[in-house]
Design brief:
elongated; 7-stranded parallel β-sheet; 20 helices; Isoleucyl-tRNA Synthetase, Domain 1
Length: 506
């Protein structure tokens, strides 16, 4: 019997500057989904990569006095290097300058043209060069500016090729009405549905005067509008990610595509329409997350208010960054980030709650039982607190609610710390008459710690591997997450997983 397929994507990241924390945020969330589904035994494919064509990249390259390809090569490697530092387990890293992607984009758009959805015309409208986007009247901010970048829009008038987006008005309405979870969360669904209700207009498929892009196959004097080039990466990657194989039948359509809210229109409206025009299935779900904010503004390369994820990882480790971003900022909402908030989460929850639970549980087993976990029945009261936990986590992950799933696990972390205080093993150890009761408490704590750590693998992969190794629990599959499914014997001492002063620990 074939394993269920699970395909998750991040947006591809512009190479007009180096990576920042916002890119890490989306990549980490996608990795949590991928790791969780691998635990469940699913056939998983996780895609990320870089968006290398179009005017924003050409402008950034000109400002640095280099060719666009040179800038793309430089910054694509920075994004590629970020992934292993984040402990991201992506299966492929696509670059839209890959010759295989270029050829596949041209082939698909030839198909769209053959199906009758491409025509030649003249476009005039307001344009943001940083978004590489023509703005509708509803999207123009006060002072004729871009609502995202705050810069003045330019008036563009050019003859190019158009995509007949208006032809998909009814089919997109049917998609949204028939699949109310196509765009998540609901606020973003409503936003996309509102855009659709305003009526669709045909949009540019190509650009004149922009050389840095994929040539239109039937008109090499023009390049394909960067958004069509970029959107198609989610499909084209599957055609060449594995040498000699085409993975599209195995993984398409994507289960979850994670995007930021600033690119909602392109993914929720343009993207499914393009796929329909090419006779391809649309993705099952789009999950739209909010912005990371600093001082009330979106963290953005173009705004210059960024935090360096490399610096955070160097001091605290990738797991601490992964935890903070998906714990402090509810996935799907805007959220403020700061060094102070990071340090508070690190110390109060990772160090004091989870790290301390692990440290004192292992220490007590060594102090009172010479490192051997008592082979006794587990405490039914604690077992009841864990009942149904894996199923709850899986149900939340199936809706891409990674913050809520983490909170559900963390409630049990806190419950275990409360259990320690209630049972007071140090007091039980003072009286030999309580020996059997102490055995139950220690065994139950070890099993709870094992169960929690298996569930936390997607969020804290390095720390979980270290702790499960100390517990002698090699099975980190989802089936092993249930409380009571473990079989622990001898456990090893462990160094603090989240030291209060990482500099001293290192």
């Amino acid at each position: 019997m074939a394993r269920p397929a699970f395909y998750v994507t991040t947006p591809i990241y512009y190479v007009n500057a180096a990576p920042h924390l916002g890119h890490a945020y989306t990549s980490i969330a996608a990795d949590v989904l991928a790791r969780h589904h691998r635990q469940r035994g699913d056939d998983v494919f996780f895609l990320t990569g870089t968006d290398e064509h179009g005017e924003p990249v050409a402008l950034a390259a000109a400002a640095e006095g280099v060719e666009p390809q040179a800038l793309a090569d430089q910054n694509a490697e920075r994004f590629r290097a970020l992934m292993p530092q984040l402990e991201a387990s992506n299966d492929f890293f696509i670059r839209t300058s890959d010759e295989q992607h270029v050829a596949a984009v041209q082939e698909i758009l030839e198909r769209v043209k053959a199906n009758g959805y491409v025509f030649e015309g003249t476009y005039e409208g307001w344009y943001c060069p940083r978004c590489a986007d023509f703005k509708t009247a509803q999207e123009v901010a006060e002072g004729n500016t871009c609502p995202i970048h705050g810069i003045e829009l330019t008036r563009e008038n050019e003859q190019n090729w158009f995509f007949q987006l208006s032809a998909f008005q009814e089919r997109l309405e049917e998609l949204f009405d028939g699949q109310p979870d196509f765009v998540q969360p609901k606020t973003r669904y409503n936003e996309a549905r509102s855009f659709l209700a305003g009526g669709l207009q045909d949009v540019s498929l190509s650009r004149r005067g922009i050389d840095w892009g994929i040539p239109v196959p039937w008109d090499p004097d023009q390049t394909i509008y960067v958004w069509w080039d970029a959107l198609l990466n989610y499909y084209t990657a599957l055609t060449y990610a594995e040498p000699g194989a085409d993975l599209t039948e195995r993984f398409w359509p994507a289960n979850y595509q994670l995007i930021g809210k600033d690119i909602l229109k392109f993914h929720a409206i343009y993207w499914p329409a393009l796929l329909m025009a090419a006779d391809l299935p649309v993705p099952r779900h789009l999950f739209v997350h909010g912005f990371l904010l600093m001082d009330g503004e979106k963290m953005s390369k173009s705004l210059g208010n960024v935090l360096d994820p490399f610096a955070v990882i160097e001091r605290y480790g990738a797991d601490a960054l992964r935890f903070y971003l998906l714990r402090d900022v509810p996935f799907g909402s805007d959220g403020s980030v700061s060094a102070a908030a990071f340090e508070a989460r690190y110390e109060n929850e990772l160090a004091n709650e989870y790290g301390n639970l692990a440290a004192r549980t292992i220490a007590m087993v060594h102090r009172y039982r010479e490192g051997l976990v008592p082979a006794v029945p587990l405490d039914g009261e604690l077992a009841s607190d864990f009942e149904g936990l894996p199923e709850q986590v899986a149900a939340l992950i199936d809706k891409a609610e990674v913050t809520q799933a983490l909170e559900t696990i963390w409630e049990r972390v806190r419950r275990c710390n409360q259990y320690v205080e209630e049972r007071a093993p140090w007091t039980l150890a003072k009286d030999e008459a309580n020996s059997d009761q102490l055995d139950v408490v220690l065994a139950s704590l070890c099993e709870a710690l094992r169960s929690l750590t298996v569930l936390l693998v997607p969020w804290l992969p390095a720390s979980a591997e270290k702790l499960l190794g100390a517990l002698g629990a090699s099975d980190d599959s989802f089936a092993a997450a249930a409380f009571g499914s473990g079989s622990l014997a001898a456990i090893e001492k462990i160094e603090p997983m989240f030291p209060k002063d990482p500099d001293e620990a290192s």
